[in-house]
Specification:
This protein is α+β, with helices and mostly antiparallel strands. It has 24 helices and 23 strands. Helix content is 40%, strand content 21%.
Length: 586
């Protein structure tokens, strides 16, 4: 589990049909992955669990399924055309492209980086590094200047001797070996060649809509699912009898032309998202209606939403909701953490953002984010489309109408002062209030955004365990087991006949198997010893295995073997169904 390497996980995923490298028979294509028989079942389970938790069990969230290609003006309004980019470098020698902010990580994760790290694990010893350059490096880093040129090695050796602390950072040491006598050199993590200066690289995939390849017909594959929700906001508001606060949820494919896809499926060029935009009243509207705004300082009960909640409480509420869902899917609460972005890390429009992070084998990384995005997105689309994104709120208008002139002036003064203190234009505050007193405003939004692929990768890493066992004869044994929650497990139950050459037992097992398949994904296995059949199911994470034997014909009971405890219990089919249904509740 905790110490599992990605090599072990990826090997199991290929062997057991979870994940394959796309187009592998043609050498593969970097950043794209195919999900096999068990992988696609597990992905579907994750998405179904999210939809059940986020949409179907709530009265205040509706769904959307929008197109992957949308009008390019949407991406201009959202800022993706101008700002959605990563800094890119090119190696002048090997011509490889990579993200400038990932150069050191790419080196550290590579064969050369791991080998050099082993040499300096107890500190930078110039003689040991020189020995590495004369020996092992000739097979894995022969293009490094200090490896190919004795004079360059001497220069690097002298620099290390003079100031070993300066090269304690692994990439700094590597750079020295790549260019011992060049200041400001940025070494390619693949070959040691010189990298170009970083330049922006837009991450959106371009395509052409229609038969003519013309600049006027350029469109883009969506880099996120959220913008479609904002673009369809007024249609959904007018057709679904919803009112603020309410949410719009969407799942689907997104595409980003990552400069350096890496860490298995964690950072891919094609991936699936599960996003919710939850629209709330501005705090000023809440205060007009309720006379106050509840903040986190009030220590509110987050179990049930209340109409006097301000944005801060709504944001914390959705952080807790997302943590509850992640835990329900099988990640222990201790395995993921909240990272609250600092003010200087926030997007200019965001009031808060929390990253829920998981300790993957390659480090602590974001699993999903929950952002308080103010009214930025709807405002941008209102400006660029010319279509109003305001909602009318009768309660707000009635509350404003009940204020006398003095109360309205005091309220205006307070709001203008608050906006000014937050660096916002006081004139815009007055314009906002003019609409608000008429019962109109642009909703603010809380955005929980999760990746299906990242969630699945975290569940795979968390579930994996190699166990050393002793059988009932005292013989050492072992098994690989995936401890998936029943909610996300690709197969819920395996069904085995104790023997396949006894027609009565065989047909009874088939009858039970067909019955269960009507409700859940079940797996039929009639070949090999029962122990080996159990092991095959353990490796794909099947929670329960049913063995139908001769006693089944007499009393209707069969053996149910629990994956995690390996204990066996006799049950009838109704008893098993009841137990399984309870375990599958979201």
């Amino acid at each position: 589990m905790a110490n599992t390497s990605m090599d072990v996980i990826s090997s199991l995923c290929k062997r057991r049909g979870f994940i394959y490298h796309s187009s592998e028979i043609y050498g593969g294509i970097n950043g794209f992955w195919d999900y096999g028989p068990f992988g696609c079942e597990m992905k579907r389970n994750i998405k179904n669990a999210w939809w059940e938790f986020t949409v179907r069990t709530r009265e205040d969230v509706v769904g959307l399924d929008a197109t992957i290609i949308m009008h390019p003006s949407i991406w201009k309004a959202s800022g993706h055309l101008s700002t959605f980019s990563d800094p890119m470098c090119t190696c002048r020698s090997c011509k490889k492209l990579m993200r400038a902010d990932q150069v050191a990580d790419i080196f550290t994760d590579g064969e050369c980086g791991k080998s050099l790290a082993e040499v300096v694990k107890d500190g930078v010893d110039a003689a040991k590094v020189a020995g590495w350059c004369k020996g092992k490096a000739k097979g894995i880093a022969k293009t490094l200047a200090a490896v190919a040129d004795a004079d360059k090695l001497t220069a690097a050796f002298n620099a290390m001797k003079a100031d070993p602390a300066k090269y304690a950072d692994l990439y700094a040491l590597y750079t020295l070996l790549a260019a011992p006598e060049t200041e400001g050199y940025r070494a390619c993590p693949y070959c040691g060649g010189e990298l170009t200066e970083p330049r922006p690289f837009n991450l959106m995939f371009k395509t052409v809509v229609g038969p003519v390849d013309d600049p006027d017909n350029v469109a883009y594959l969506r880099p996120e699912t959220a913008q479609a929700i904002f673009a369809e906001f007024t249609n959904i508001l007018n057709s679904s009898r919803v009112s603020v606060p309410f949410g719009i949820a969407q799942m689907g494919k997104s595409f980003r032309n990552e400069v350096t896809p890496r860490n298995y499926t964690f950072r891919s060029r094609e991936f699936e998202q599960m996003e919710l935009e939850f629209f709330i009243k501005p705090d000023e509207a809440v205060e007009l209606v309720c006379g106050h705004v509840v903040t986190m300082k009030d220590n509110p009960d987050l179990s049930t939403p209340a109409k006097d909640w301000g944005w801060e409480v709504w944001h914390k509420y959705w952080v807790e909701q997302r943590k509850a869902w992640i835990h329900r899917c099988g990640l222990p609460a201790a395995s993921f953490t909240e990272y609250w972005q600092k003010p200087d890390e926030l997007a200019h429009y965001a009031r808060a953002c929390v990253d829920i992070e998981y300790q993957f084998p390659f480090g602590l990384q974001e699993l999903e984010g929950i952002a308080a995005r103010s009214d930025y997105d709807l405002t941008q689309h209102q400006i660029h489309s010319g279509q109003s994104m305001e909602v009318f709120d009768a309660d707000v208008k009635a509350a404003a109408a009940a204020l006398d002139d003095a109360a309205k002036a005091a309220f205006t003064e307070k709001v203008v002062a608050d906006w000014t203190a937050r660096g916002k234009d006081p004139e815009k505050a007055k314009k906002f209030l003019a609409s608000l007193f008429e019962g109109r405003y642009i909703p603010h939004v809380i955005e929980p955004s999760a990746g299906v692929d990242r969630m699945m990768l975290a569940l795979l890493c968390n579930a994996y365990e190699e166990q050393k066992l002793t059988d009932n004869k005292g013989k050492d044994d072992s098994r690989v087991v995936m401890h998936f929650s029943p909610v996300v497990a690709p197969v819920k139950v395996g069904v085995f006949p104790i023997v396949k050459n006894k027609p009565d037992v065989y047909e009874k097992a088939r009858e039970i198997y067909k019955d269960l398949r009507k409700r859940v994904s079940a797996f039929w296995d009639e070949s090999g010893q029962i122990g080996r059949r159990y092991r095959r199911q353990d490796e794909i994470g099947t929670p329960w295995c049913i063995t139908v034997d001769f006693q089944t014909l007499e009393d209707g009971t069969f053996t149910v073997r629990d994956r995690d405890t390996m204990q066996q219990t006799r049950m009838t089919l109704p008893e098993f169904k009841a137990m399984m249904e309870e375990a599958l509740l979201m």
